[in-house]
Write the structure tokens for this entry.
Amino acid sequence: MEKIISMYDQLVIHKITYETSQSIVTAECELIRHNERIYTSFLISHTDLNRILAKIIAKGYTLDASFYQSFQFEDGTEVIDCEFDNLPEGPVYLEEFEFADYVTEIRA
């Protein structure tokens, strides 16, 4: 799926999880269009993660230690969990965001 988010009014980022040695990131999001909400998960690139973080910082959100957790495993693997709903400013809403790389929607 290419640039699926451009079809929606807002993207709400709830949670992002990634393993430091992997090239993909899992994003739990909410898509809003005409006041309808669709909860979904996407596999995105680190490039798009960096773009999301840049937009969040530009909007004035505070990214401190309260919004992420790091889990270290015995084999050296590290998993980072970013809980955007825990930010002091509340949930993260992005308007007119388009992914630069391909996005894969995760479906059950």
